[in-house]
Amino acid sequence: MPRPVTLLVLVALAGLPTLPALGQPAEEPKVEVVARGLVNPWGMAFLPDGRALVTERPGRLRIVNLRAGAAGAPITGLPPIAAMGQGGLLGLALDPDFATTRQVFLCFAESRDGGTGTSVFRGRLSASFAALEEGQVIFRQMPAGNTGRHFGCRLVFGRDGTLFITLGDRGNMEKEAQNLANHIGKVIRITKDGTVPPDNPFVNRADAKPEIWSYGHRNVQGATLHPETGRLYTIEHGARGGDEINQPQAGRNYGWPVITYGIDYSGAKIGEGTRKAGMEQPLFYWDPSIAPSGAMFYTGDKFPKWRGHLFTGALAGQLLARLEMRNGQVIGETRMLEREGDRIRDVVQGPDGYIYLLTDDREGKLLRLVPR
What we know:
The protein is mostly beta strands. It has two helices and 24 strands. The protein has helices at about 5-15, 100, and strands at about 30-40, 40-45, 50-55, 60-65, 70, 90-95, 105-110, 115-125, 130-140, 155, 165, 185-190, 210-215, 220-225, 230-235, 245, 285, 290-295, 310-315, 320-325, 330-335, 345-350, 355-360, 365-370. Strand 2 and strand 3 form a beta hairpin. The longest helix has 10 residues, at about 5-15. The chain is globular, with a radius of gyration of 19 Å. The two termini are about 35 Å apart.
């Protein structure tokens, strides 16, 4: 697969419309600060009343009133959270039937024998929305690891009500991403109560974890459904280069660490190259890396030219990437908000059609993008 800049050139030669060249500030929206003082906010979901439920990595869950521009007191009833390194309270998702169940699903780093691991907790918001009740851990990544890196930790509900969980390789167990006997470097699919769907790809294999949906992933920190097809799209960190966009399919192998478009931080080669039979190619990749985080397909009416585009934030890149899609493929990229200088952790479309961002900082912000 060609590199992104080369990809734009090929599209232009084919006579297809392209976005402006990489890094150009085309169609820059206005940036509004909705709330300040969030401590390393990581994930966000909108409640039916328009307020935002936000996770903070040190282990707090808060509701942000967008009109008042203020975050409420931390919600109680959370599980013990291991806030260390890149770990802590991370991704979240609301039950598709939230109006009836008031259930919230949280992805977090959990201390256990052998170190820490990514886990998923389910709880019901109390009538006052001040506490999580009837909480239980419904999934634990096995085995635990001894680093504070690569927890993955995005949650997305499929249209059939099953829950996708993205998991990292824990930073020092990369070879285990190819081992179906564990959860390292995998995308997981379970039901809302933590059981295994009977149509999971490895459910009848004795040598594989039945929760696995796809494997060979490094550290997936963006996940979303395509608004038309309902298919899962993920965005994961590479090493030096090789950040990837994938469309994980049941039972497929996405290559890490055997194939990658990146190199080790030392400059050494990783794996066997960029292609191998039986391993999937990414839809798109970045080299150099931008450290992408969060993912969203835009479907609103405030930015009509951007409908169907895929957005991701960038941590190291300190930007918002907008990717134009056609027939499930990326045909162009525009980089936005580079002058803001923020590490963008999550990107979510609000019920009002505006785009909302979380910035990863000890004095983190909730931002809103509006047309100029």
